[in-house]
Amino acid sequence: MNITKRQKDIIEIVKESQPITGEVIAKRLSLTRSALRTDFCILTGKGILKSKPKVGYVYQEIQEKKYIYEIMGPVVSVENNISVYDTILQMFAKDVGTIFIVEGENLVGIVSRKDLLKIAIGKTDITKVPINVVMTRMPNIVYCEENDDIVDAVKKIIVHQVDSLPVVRLKEDNGKNIYQLVGRFTKTNITKLFLENVVK
């Protein structure tokens, strides 16, 4: 965001003495109100200052967009050829509610505790069933990309009622989409972000 030195001075004056009128700001800078008209237009247009009629100018914190790659967690995954039993062990060892299934670096499936519970309470020998038999596959996986806006990802978590989203880097191979798994975005990430903004 390009702003001039004078505009920076105006911002500092408003921060220190808000609400403050244009006339008072002009006096402090030894200028006329009309000389600052363009600066006020730019600063209010960019959302840095807010003009309140009969009150003056106030400073507004600019909420910059945040992206998934800034707060995503590490990948928690298992290979698609291991058993349901081993997947359950990994899930509890890593203390996650959802685990991603990969083939190499690429996302091929996802399983939740609920999925594993369904098969575990049956009479199936879960030490012999590969995880790829019970996993949810594409195109039924809700995911986000590392450059997605966090707000969009939060909406996906709410709408689809899931605990986490795989973060992928989309690639193409012979006309087929490849979903390289690069991280995970969870409700815990959202809570931490909320707390950081509240404590600021």
Automatic annotation (TrEMBL):
Pfam families: CBS, HTH_11. It comes from the Bacteria. This is Control catabolite protein of gluconeogenesis. SUPFAM superfamilies: CBS-domain pair, Winged helix' DNA-binding domain. It comes from Fusobacterium necrogenes. InterPro entries: CBS_dom, CBS_dom_sf, CBS_domain-containing, HTH_11, UCP026546_HTH-CBS, WH-like_DNA-bd_sf, WH_DNA-bd_sf. Residues 71-126, 135-200 form the CBS domain. Keywords: CBS domain, Repeat.
